[in-house]
Write a structure and sequence with these properties.
By secondary structure, the protein is of the alpha+beta class. The protein has one domain. The chain has 7 helices and 13 strands. The strands form 5 sheets. Strands 7-11-1-12-13 form a 5-stranded antiparallel sheet. The relative contact order is 0.23.
């Protein structure tokens, strides 16, 4: 539980830098939209950068972590959700509140203004909360696509998974194809957690909880059909206090080459806050 109050003063204490590898345990599909369809290509291509390489958008990873934490914390009841979009067929509902100790709003930010709740009176808050968590786009480590893997891929670096939707009355098949980054691929992830007050130090544990939930869930599309299982490893956690930026002081490396379990033990330790000085 957060100890933030409406009187909590914000001033940069430092930044926690988490970096490491995101391993694809199964094929991964994060869609680019059908605007990039090519003749003979998959119905649902993956998002690629300017060099034609797949990557994991920071927004996709950040949004999935947020969604998993909202469910885990019981914040998806109608009274806890607001509409980002009410366009018919394209509704977007997320959690937001005006509680100063709301860890979701502290991690991911909160905009002031009036928003319609899914159920109950509209949320009207004048408090803006800066997002503590920044998640960067994760580029593909091209060396993780081995020569042996390339021999069995449909494209140089991706595979095409064919699926069928079966009509329950006529048994007619409706085939579709899904482009995926293959199992075994690896992406480089980087996240920065701003610590703007002493109370923020506890948010590191909430972030790692979200990442552990992700490992037993799915990232991207087709998760319930086998895609999107990922694992985080080779993690480095570093602390850069204010003096790092103002006077060139050295960073403190808190973990190196670690898995999520080891990082979670570190941030959940009662002495963790003392390391962030």
């Amino acid at each position: 539980m957060s100890t933030h109050t409406a009187q909590t003063q914000l001033q940069l204490v430092g930044k926690l830098i988490l970096s490491g590898d995101l391993h694809c345990e199964t094929g991964l599909h994060i869609g680019a939209g059908k605007g990039s369809l090519e003749i003979g290509g998959a119905d649902n291509p993956v998002v690629k950068d300017a060099f034609g390489l797949p990557y994991v958008p920071g927004s996709s990873l950040r949004g999935r972590i947020r969604s998993l934490l909202e469910h885990a914390l019981g914040l998806t009841a109608p009274g806890e959700l607001v509409y980002l979009s009410k366009r018919k067929g394209q509704e977007v509902r997320i959690h937001q509140s005006d509680r100063p100790d709301d860890e979701i709003c502290l991690l991911f930010g909160r905009n002031p203004g009036r928003m319609d709740r899914v159920q109950g009176e509209a949320l009207d808050t004048r408090q803006a909360t800066p997002a503590r968590l920044t998640v960067y786009d994760a580029p593909l480590d091209a060396s993780s696509i081995t020569a042996q893997m390339r021999e069995n891929l449909d494209d140089e670096i991706t595979e095409v998974k064919s699926e069928n939707a079966i009509d329950r009355i006529t048994s007619q098949a409706n085939p579709r194809t899904l482009e995926r980054v293959p199992a075994g691929a690896r992406f480089r992830v980087r996240m920065v957690l701003d610590v703007l007050c002493e109370e923020d130090k506890a948010l590191a544990a909430r972030l790692i909880e979200g990442l552990r939930l992700l490992e037993d869930d799915a990232l991207g599309g087709g998760g319930s059909r086998g895609s999107g299982r990922v694992r985080l490893g080779n993690l480095t956690l570093a602390w850069r206090n204010r003096a790092f930026y103002s006077a060139g002081s050295a960073e403190a490396e808190l973990a190196s080459g670690a898995d999520l379990a080891a990082v979670q033990s570190l941030v959940n330790d009662s002495a963790f806050g003392e390391k962030l000085s």
